[in-house]
Protein 1
Amino acid sequence: MAAMPAANIAFNVPEQLNLRQTGHIQLLLDVKKSQATLAAEIAEAGVKQTATVKVWDRMEARLTAPQLQITAITPEEQSVGSLDTAEWRWDVVPTASGQYPLHLTLTALVETDGATSRIAIHTYDKTIVVKVTAGQWVTDFLKNNWQWLWAAILLPIGGLILKRWKGKADVPSDRA
């Protein structure tokens, strides 16, 4: 690992997402650009993190988290060269409210004797807060509880309306 060259990385972490709201995470890696330059090139919202890591010709960046649906937009395995900035992107959709650890793992893919070995370079752990908006809460509540809402609210209201309607029909008229 001592012979591996160093590279700078920058990535963003959304501090907070709403339930079912898509967040975007972007990771940039470059052997020549500074951390500040890479951080400035991050287009996605969120807190920007930077670091220096060891790299190899092929790298893998993987994002994982419980209760988050994560979709890789770019290939997780990529070649890392000295000419271009390597970029990884993910869409993150929370499936439940709460606070969840977000894990970003960088792995060097080293080929020795015709076989690829994986060397874990660094793992970054961040916490992402998933909030539920009032509208989402009401929608979820109605969707998950419509059976008892029907019985507890609509039937009594219907009975009251029926009672008033029948009461008006039973009142004698004063016309003679």
Protein 2
Amino acid sequence: MKKFLLSQLLVIAAGTAFAWKTVFEDFNRFFSAGGDFFQFSGCRFPNPLATPCFYGALVFLIALVWAAGLWQSQSLASQKKLSYLLLAGSIFAWSVNAWEFYKFLKPHTDLYVGCNGLPATSPVFTPCFAGASFYLISLLLSLWIIKIMKKDTHPNA
């Protein structure tokens, strides 16, 4: 069981690292363009505190701490709660992507600009899509671990 929980921890750690790398790049871009920490308008780039990526990164950080604790405790009840958190993160991330796809697909004459303020050729090539994919993979792995934990608890079931 430890190796499955370690795999989960590593996938969530990768998602967390990706999300925070993106947030730090967004902050750097925002501050370089003259933005101030509590300035939410008047800058070429959005304040990262007002972007979905920032909140997705926060949830990933919570999930990482939770997964690290699970690696030690191996609690089925806690694993189920982590799955709910990852489900919420997945729904949030894919909802953001659905909005980005809507904006991309509706008729427009200018460049498509993602939620981070950068032009992109498609929402598939944005950090939002990658983050949502990390959430989905983490969720599926979490559900698989629950199935294994239940089987280990009730071998004849």
Protein 3
Amino acid sequence: MTARKINFYLGALSTMPAHQRLFDHMDKLTAMQRVFMEIAPPQLAQRCTLGGFFEGNLTLCAYNGAIAAKLRQILPSLLLKFRVRGYEVTAIRVTVQANYRSITGRELAANGPAGKRQIGQAGMKSLVGLAAGLPRSPLKSAIESLLKKKNE
């Protein structure tokens, strides 16, 4: 069987009446995403996406809480700008949804998979100094345990 690009299959599906409503909705969301990228401050627009649009309610998915807080501050102006562009947005809901694809290959290679990160020599020396200066406590025990595991 010949391999074909997914656009070929999506194009064929978009012409079928059973899927027309879905593809119309996706086209509208794509257009709204482009508009959002134009009307939102660039530092915010790059760190969030449209989650959905139904009956005038728009959902924005921010990558973290700080971005979500900033978006909530500018919601009234975003509503007005969407309306000026011809979209009947009556409410905007902001949610936090981490985007794990935003981690670059370089960051992943440097940090390794979660749970397998390494502590450098300078970090180890700092931990030894910290443990030596702490009084007997659960924190000191935890640091000593970590140092013991690293030395094994």
